[in-house]
């Protein structure tokens, strides 16, 4: 639509203002990471690089990041497999209970985290009798990450149709070969977008994690939460947040490039 | 036309989608090396027949034989037929060469050999320079030729083409028609060609099956269909026709039943034409439409029928008359085709019926 | 055809036989596709959820914290009749609705600008700008807002010259912070929804005399409604269960999440917590049921 | 105290008789800051020496509230827990922790006597753990708002409305005891003898007081950061606090001070306890001994910001004074957190007291 | 053809997209009530001109006048032109009736009146029964008619149609062509019609502009363009032509320069035809293609040129010869059109130049 110039400018200004406001708290975090105040008070009483130095030496922070990455990678991988399978089933087949299944996929994200958390906690500990560990976190995270992959993949499948796969079969490729050479490459950017979101979701999850993490499993959000209860650590958390934001731009950018402008972003 | 061993034999082929019967008891034999077209309006089941032959759909009933072998239950990748899809279905993530080599690759043919053969196939459609491009960097006509090369490089016994020219614009389509026919002759492969463009079907085909409502309405050579349409439907669908219903036939032709006359068989002139077997009727010109290569003249006959005549735009017909002119429309008795009663029509029988009347 | 290259069919291996079997047996294919994910979702999630709900009908020995598995309606009755739960439910619902409304209002212009005004390059930049805040940890952002909203914070500093004041810690602060946290989750589906609206429809509206506002109201809005609802599922559900943000900036207020958390984490009363958990479950199911018709669930 | 200990399982009722081989690992459940191995701050580390000494690898899980600890102990995944008084008795009652044989813990000797054999760490004279550190919940105030130091809790109760919206309180059901301490002094008619032993009527009075207080509360707090921020910015000017928070605020040059009001106060004395299902009992005993050793105890309590458990530990700390370590007088003004149970802790037998569950729901009511 | 006050006047209209000049200094006047077509290959700028007129794009240079009023800077909703989009752009969430009533609704016309007028518009396209359906429940041809009703109900002075029939299949397209022409006549609205189908353009239009590379190559009535193509491009694009280059023209026609002859102007016969102004050349039949209404005969002239002749399928031409037959191809001198040198062509001038030569 060719909006009138004033309309375009107004929209642009509104967008700029909202995004500006979105970045104010992040700016506060950035400033805090250089603040001499351990309590994140505003305005910062002085500037120091101490926290940046400490953050990079903090084995605990590094461990927590690694744990989070590990959890996020594994649960994203599981979500990718399960989400893709469901998308194929729901998009390519018409069967009784289809709607129920699509609701089922959405449920773990639609129900509040604390409910998922206590349900799984109760399930693992009292029902199954398995001790909480990193794997229980992974299982929990994978469960609510399925939906992001599912949504991306099913949208792609819906748009793409079965033509290319038929062409491949027609040219003599079996089911597996077709998947490897044709279907998968076509889904790649959708999987990437879905996987990225799943990763982000898992990486920053705290509520479900609180209830499903075993002893010694400290994901980054848990580490941060603990640090809120620990004196003199808060600015390190700011440093970590700043680093994460900066680092995150790379995968988002790559995903953007790969999926193209007209593509599904979710 | 049928051989002792037809390339394709469909027997009682039926496909139902829920309540819709897309293909309804189709029996058909297509000879090896034939250029066979399926023509029909949208939704008449042409694509479905093609997909059944290719194996993308499972028939509800009936069998499909390929050179005498029953392949009804075979997976698509186990059938010696290949398809050129309407939207080409080129793999967007592969280069043109990789696309063409795909069928060889999945057959486990080594990189060297398959590249060589894919190059040869590309050369046969005059795209040897384009091997490294992505399909998105090609024009419509070029894509069409890549699809053709990809389907033919594995040397199928039968090539299925589903409106392969439908997405091209007119000029390009005409050009590709010529190329298609050329390739079919060169390779000697059986082509089964789906189109809803009757001119395309007439120009290219050895034989044509006209589909309607999932059934074959008439089957025959282009001239059979055009000159001797077996039903009102075929007369209307293949080319245009002037239809005379029972009453008008009585009045103008002097015999009962339904009849059809092609526009180009009607001559429009200021004076009544006479001659052996020539009949004529007076009328008034309603519209004169300039077509470039010809002129279409619409005349309201005094007998109460609107007919269309087609005159070639050459020296002989420089004056075709103007709106409102009084004219005589004349035709040769032999050009009047008697139509069998309209539906219910049974595939196959009709053509014979029509022929016997003409 | 002259060459001797006539292609034999690819070799028949077990794999190809399997392939052929799958191709001709769609139901088997479906079963194979569904087996793993359904097993996972049902066994891990649905069973856990069902057991939790069953727990709501049990009780707990208050001193030892041992659960007594005898059927009782006490918890349910308490939750349904207790004025505390009614108050907190209403407050939580109010917060969730306010957050959702604010997010939609904020997301619409941004999403529209991204999808329909910005150049492709700008579009890419904007998507990155919208996604980036997701990576600064939730807690860090919540504490940042605590800092911004403080008596001494940036907001006060910005507003004071205009005679405004920071709302301080409380429900408004909670609503602001939650809106902030979930905004990207609302923008993205709306943006995707707008991208799917063909430009030609907007042009057609302008062509027929529709000015900007009628076009938005009569054409754009109805078309992206499912996408908007998809976005609201996120902001609504996430707000409904939150207990951390309200703790950080909510002043003295508590929400349903806090009650659940206190009962399970502090009071060690899982049965009561389960009973309270029923409230958001019922609300969410109600919401999903309401929006199911709109096709929103395909737009998440 | 006299506790029924009804839930205790027979097998672990007996303390360990003698030590055996170290298992090579131990799993600890602790307050944040109690077990630091240098991963958060390389200069804060008292776990590494322990590991080197005993060969027991340490894994740690931290908890935010006593109740969380209680829950986590039920899993049986942890060998040792640092329990505050509001959790310890419940742990004993649930049979989740075992009695300890103090003979096997050489450093038990040096611990302040007033910390030993208390209601929150022993049952019928049988010790269930080793005291770790203790502290008082103090009254913190903004020195601008209160030029003269308040001497009474009334600034957060009866006079709270003077600073409406800027008062804070600890966010836990156990805070009801603070109100009870105040009522003990100001409403003697209620007959409260022990703030953790309230009958229905007494609880109701405390709840009323707290409900009134709530109207003036700006926010409740449960973590350091929130409290420090609030006092630095002036969002909060008066409320309960901990000595360590005051120390941090001094570092921030905030205008705050703490005082122990005349009514006395509540406080905590934490106890290291061993799980009745401990998989690594020998390493657990080693940890209990180690963390009671002066150097380790000093490091841990100093980092957390509380008084250590022995005089010897003070030799490794310079700030013992600030925490009134070993000051028995000071310590006697503190009502250490213990778990309210139906059987009144103050010895009354004619009434049943309100238990922790009642306190929890009362607390939720108060917050509304 | 132009009036004192043209419906549309484009002056120096130019549109650049980055480096691409989509429309290049187009000057054009379209008279009120005219059925005007823009014909040209893909990418020649037809759509862009239409979008400039509708106001969806802003020109880089030049002005657009509507009945003498400069509307160059006006928003689309402030212009009295309406568009029928190629993909129809029907609002999927509204019923057919609501779609048609939309333009009235945004003009603030009350529900009663707009429903009434929308119903009338639907009736004019014979869809009165379909008002309650959603667009997705209609067939392609029906959607096309809804789009038409929606655009005409607000009584625009000019209607822009961007390949409105492109998505329809052949039979339906032919039918819709007739209806379109009918509606245009009935309403008396100026139609600006974009197509790449030359037959469609010839059949329907009062005048045609042939576009290439953002410029008008030739402008004129269908007969002007067809009979007197001004350039090789137009000769090839509008209909098919036999092109004689300079050397062949010398040999066969006895004069220099480039010439074109339409296939239907060529006669093929076994004996040499003689007559006033008739020339002929001997050759061999290469191919005979049956078209239904006609027969296409491809002949290799002995002079070294392949020509195509078109013969109508009527009594007079029953025998057209077979492949390999020796024949004579004859034509009338007056049917040979001299072509101006190919590009660079300047719009407008060429038609005149061509006319003067012929
Ligand atoms: N997968 C399907 N599910 C349900 N109905 C189908 C399916 N495929 C085709 N049909 C129906 O079967 C009938 C025949 O369709 P088919 O695609 O074979 O027609 P067609 O002759 O190829 O038409 P077109 O010229 O439009 O391509 C139609 O009524 C169509 O709606
Ligand atoms: N929005 C745009 N941005 C950049 N280039 C454009 C844009 N729109 C059109 N073009 C370019 O302008 C030229 C003319 O395009 P236009 O769509 O007007 O052609 P057309 O004659 O309508 O072609 P078609 O028959 O394919 O519809 C083309 O080269 C096209 O690539
Ligand atoms: Mg089809
Ligand atoms: Mg166009």
Number of strands of chain D: 15
Strand content of chain D: 15-25%
Characterize the largest beta sheet of chain C: strand count, sense, and whether it forms a barrel: 2 strands, antiparallel
Number of domains of chain C: 1
Domain ABC transporter (chains B, E): 8-238
GO molecular function (chains B, E): ATP binding
InterPro entries (chains B, E): AAA+_ATPase, ABC_SmlMolc_Importer, ABC_transporter-like_ATP-bd, ABC_transporter-like_CS, Mo/tungstate-bd_C_term_dom, P-loop_NTPase, Transp-assoc_OB_typ2
Keywords (chains B, E): ATP-binding, Nucleotide-binding, Transport
Structure at a glance:
By secondary structure, chain B is of the alpha+beta class. Chain B has ten helices and 18 strands. The longest helix of chain B is centred in the middle third of the chain and has 18 residues, at 170-187.
Please, could you describe this protein's structure?
The complex is a heteropentamer, with 1 copy of chain A (266 residues), 2 copies of chain B (358 residues), 1 copy of chain C (300 residues) and 1 copy of chain D (368 residues). Chain A is 77% helix and 0% strand. Chain A has 266 residues and is mainly alpha-helical. In chain A, helix 3 (59-92) packs across helix 6 (134-160). The radius of gyration of chain A is 22 Å and the shape is globular. The model of chain A is unreliable at 261-266 (pLDDT under 50). Chain B is built from 10 helices and 18 strands. Chain B has helices at 46-54, 96-105, 111-124, 140-152, 170-187, 198-204, 222-227, 232-237, 246-253, 349-357, and strands at residues 8-17, 20-30, 35-39, 61-66, 69-70, 81-84, 158-162, 190-195, 207-212, 215-220, 242-244, 258-261, 267-269, 278-290, 294-301, 305-312, 326-332, 337-339. Chain B has a 6-stranded mixed β-sheet with strand order 6-7-8-3-9-10, with helices on both faces. Chain B starts with 7 loop residues before the first strand and ends with a helix. By secondary structure, chain C is mainly alpha-helical. Chain C has a single domain, classed as MetI-like fold. In chain C, strand 1 (59-60) and strand 2 form a beta hairpin. In chain C, helix 4 (83-117) packs parallel to helix 8 and helix 6 (138-149) packs across helix 8 (171-196). Chain D contains 12 helices and 15 strands. Chain D has helices spanning 48-54, 66-73, 85-93, 176-186, 200-214, 224-233, 243-251, 281-292, 294-304, 311-314, 328-332, 356-367; strands spanning 25-30, 57-62, 80-83, 97-98, 122-123, 126-127, 130-136, 138-142, 167-170, 217-221, 238-241, 256-259, 265-275, 307-308, 334-336. In chain D, strand 1, helix 1 (48-54) and strand 2 (57-62) form a beta-alpha-beta unit. The longest helix of chain D is centred in the middle third of the chain and has 15 residues, at 200-214. The relative contact order of chain D is 0.20. The model of chain D is unreliable at 1-11 (pLDDT under 50). Classes of the chains: A mainly alpha (266), B alpha+beta (358), C mainly alpha (300), D alpha/beta (368). Chains in contact: A-B, A-C, A-D, A-E, B-C, B-E, C-D, C-E. At the A-C interface, helix 1, helix 3, helix 4, helix 5 and helix 6 of A face helix 1, helix 2, helix 4, helix 5 and helix 6 of C. Bound molecules: adenosine-5'-triphosphate (2 copies) and magnesium ion (2 copies). One adenosine-5'-triphosphate (ATP) binds next to strand 2 and helix 1 of chain B.
């Amino acid at each position: 639509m060719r909006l009138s110039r004033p309309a375009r400018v107004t929209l642009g200004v509104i967008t700029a203002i909202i995004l500006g406001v979105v970045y104010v708290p992040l700016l506060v975090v950035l400033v805090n990471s250089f603040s001499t105040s351990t309590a994140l008070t505003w305005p910062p009483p002085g500037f120091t690089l101490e926290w940046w130095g400490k953050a990079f030496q903090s084995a605990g922070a590094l461990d927590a990041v690694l744990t989070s990455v590990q959890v996020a990678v594994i649960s994203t991988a599981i979500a990718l497999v399960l989400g893709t399978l469901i998308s194929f089933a729901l998009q390519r087949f018409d069967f009784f209970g289809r709607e129920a299944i699509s609701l089922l996929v959405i449920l773990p994200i639609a129900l509040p985290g604390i409910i998922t958390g206590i349900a799984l906690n109760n399930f693992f500990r009292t029902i199954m009798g398995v001790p909480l560990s990193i794997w229980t976190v992974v299982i929990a995270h994978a469960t609510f990450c399925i939906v992001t992959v599912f949504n991306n993949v099913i949208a792609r499948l819906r748009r793409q149709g079965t033509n290319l796969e038929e062409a491949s079969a027609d040219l003599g490729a079996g089911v597996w070969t077709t998947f490897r050479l044709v279907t998968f490459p076509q889904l790649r950017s959708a999987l990437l977008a879905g996987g990225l979101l799943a990763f982000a979701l898992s990486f920053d999850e705290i509520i479900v994690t609180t209830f499903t993490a075993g002893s010694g499993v400290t994901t980054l959000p848990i580490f941060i939460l603990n640090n809120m209860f620990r004196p003199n650590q808060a600015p390190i958390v700011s440093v970590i947040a700043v680093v994460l934001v900066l680092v995150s731009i790379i995968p988002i950018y790559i995903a953007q490039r790969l999926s193209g402008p007209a593509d599904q972003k979710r | 036309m049928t051989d002792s061993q037809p390339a394709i034999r469909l027997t009682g082929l039926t496909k139902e989608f829920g309540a819709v019967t897309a293909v309804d008891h189709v029996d058909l034999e297509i000879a090896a090396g034939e250029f066979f077209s399926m023509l029909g309006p949208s939704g008449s089941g042409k694509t479905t027949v093609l997909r059944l032959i290719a194996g993308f759909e499972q028939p509800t009933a009936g069998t499909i034989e390929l050179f005498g072998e029953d392949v009804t239950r075979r997976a698509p990748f186990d059938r010696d037929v290949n398809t050129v899809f309407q939207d080409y279905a080129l793999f967007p993530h592969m280069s043109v060469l990789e696309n063409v080599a795909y069928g060889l690759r999945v057959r486990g043919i080594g990189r060297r050999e398959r590249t060589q053969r894919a190059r040869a196939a590309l050369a046969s459609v005059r795209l040897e320079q384009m091997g490294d491009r992505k399909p998105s960097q090609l024009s419509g006509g070029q894509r069409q030729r890549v699809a053709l090369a990809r389907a033919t490089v594995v040397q199928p016994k039968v090539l299925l083409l589903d409106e392969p020219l439908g997405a091209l614009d007119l000029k390009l389509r005409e050009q590709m028609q010529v190329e298609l026919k050329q390739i079919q002759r060169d390779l000697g492969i059986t082509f089964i060609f789906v189109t809803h463009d009757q001119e395309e079907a007439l120009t290219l085909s050895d034989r044509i099956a006209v589909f309607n409502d999932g059934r074959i309405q008439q089957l025959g050579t282009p001239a059979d269909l055009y000159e001797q349409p077996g039903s009102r439907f075929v007369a209307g669908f293949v080319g245009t026709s002037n239809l005379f219903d029972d009453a008008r036939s009585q009045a103008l032709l002097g015999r009962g039943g339904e009849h059809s006359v092609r526009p180009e068989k009607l001559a429009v002139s200021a004076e009544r034409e006479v001659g052996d077997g020539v009949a004529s009727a007076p009328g008034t010109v309603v519209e004169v439409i300039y077509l470039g290569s010809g002129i279409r003249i619409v005349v309201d006959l005094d007998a109460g029928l609107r007919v269309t005549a087609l005159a070639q735009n050459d020296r002989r017909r420089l004056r075709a008359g103007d709106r409102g002119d009084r004219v005589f429309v004349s035709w040769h008795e032999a050009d009047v085709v008697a139509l069998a009663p309209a539906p219910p029509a049974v595939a196959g029988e009709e053509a014979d019926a029509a022929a016997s009347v003409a | 055809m002259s060459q001797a290259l006539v292609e034999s069919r690819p070799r028949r291996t077990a794999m190809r036989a399997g392939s052929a079997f799958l191709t001709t047996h769609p139901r088997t294919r479906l079963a194979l596709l569904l087996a793993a994910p359904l097993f996972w979702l049902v066994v891990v999630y649905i069973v856990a959820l069902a057991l939790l709900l069953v727990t709501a009908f049990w009780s707990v020995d208050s001193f030892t914290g041992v659960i007594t598995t005898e059927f009782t309606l006490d918890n349910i009755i308490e939750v349904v009749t207790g004025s505390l739960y009614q108050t907190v439910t209403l407050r939580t619902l109010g917060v969730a609705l306010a957050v959702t409304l604010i997010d939609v209002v904020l997301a619409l212009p941004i999403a529209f600008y991204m999808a329909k005004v910005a150049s492709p390059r700008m579009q890419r930049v904007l998507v990155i700008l919208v996604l980036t805040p997701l990576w600064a940890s939730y807690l860090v952002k919540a504490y940042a807002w605590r800092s911004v909203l403080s008596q001494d914070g940036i907001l006060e500093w910005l507003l004071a010259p205009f005679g405004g004041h920071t709302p301080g810690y409380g429900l408004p602060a909670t609503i602001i912070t939650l809106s902030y946290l979930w905004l990207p989750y609302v923008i993205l589906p709306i943006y995707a929804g707008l991208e799917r609206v063909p430009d030609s429809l907007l042009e057609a509206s302008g062509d027929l005399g529709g000015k900007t506002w009628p076009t938005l109201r009569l054409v754009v809005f109805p078309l992206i409604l499912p996408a908007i609802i998809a976005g609201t599922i996120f902001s609504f559900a996430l707000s409904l269960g939150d207990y951390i943000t309200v703790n950080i900036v909510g002043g003295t207020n508590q929400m349903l999440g806090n009650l659940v958390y206190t009962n399970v984490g502090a009071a060690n009363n899982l049965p009561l917590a389960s009973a309270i958990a029923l409230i958001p479950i019922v609300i969410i199911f109600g919401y999903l049921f309401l929006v199911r018709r709109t096709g929103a669930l395909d737009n998440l | 105290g006299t506790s029924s200990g009804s839930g205790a399982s027979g097998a672990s009722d007996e303390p360990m008789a003698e030590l055996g081989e170290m298992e090579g690992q131990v799993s600890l459940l602790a307050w944040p800051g109690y077990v630091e191995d240098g991963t958060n701050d390389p200069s804060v580390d008292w776990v590494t020496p322990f590991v080197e000494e005993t060969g027991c690898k340490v894994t740690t899980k931290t908890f935010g509230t006593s109740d969380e600890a209680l829950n986590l102990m039920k899993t049986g995944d942890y060998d040792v827990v640092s329990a505050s008084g509001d959790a310890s008795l419940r742990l004993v009652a649930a049979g989740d922790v075992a009695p300890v044989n103090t003979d096997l813990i050489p450093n038990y000797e040096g611990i302040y006597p007033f910390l030993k054999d208390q209601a929150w760490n022993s049952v019928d004279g049988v010790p269930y753990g080793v005291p770790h550190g203790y502290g008082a919940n103090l009254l913190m105030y903004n020195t601008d708002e209160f030029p003269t130091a308040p001497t009474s809790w009334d600034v957060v109760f009866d006079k709270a409305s003077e600073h409406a919206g800027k008062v804070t309180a600890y966010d836990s059901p156990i805070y009801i005891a603070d109100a009870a301490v105040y009522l003990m002094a100001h409403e003697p008619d209620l007959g409260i003898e022990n703030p953790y032993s309230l009958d229905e009527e007494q609880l109701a009075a405390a709840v009323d007081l707290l409900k009134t207080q709530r109207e003036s509360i700006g926010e409740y707090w449960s973590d350091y950061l929130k409290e420090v921020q609030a006092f630095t910015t002036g969002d909060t000017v008066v409320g309960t606090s901990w000595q360590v928070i005051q120390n941090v605020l001094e570092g921030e040059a905030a205008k705050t001070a703490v005082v122990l009001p005349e009514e006395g106060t509540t406080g905590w004395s934490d106890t290291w306890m061993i799980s009745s299902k401990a998989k690594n009992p020998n390493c657990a005993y080693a940890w209990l001994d180690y963390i009671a050793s002066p150097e380790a105890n000093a490091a841990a309590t100093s980092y957390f910001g509380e008084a250590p458990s022995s005089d010897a530990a003070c030799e490794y700390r310079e700030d013992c004074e600030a925490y009134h370590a070993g000051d028995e007088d000071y310590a006697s003004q503190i009502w250490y957190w213990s778990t309210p149970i139906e059987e009144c802790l103050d010895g009354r037998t004619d009434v049943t007291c309100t238990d922790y569950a009642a306190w929890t729901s009362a607390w939720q009511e108060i917050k509304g």
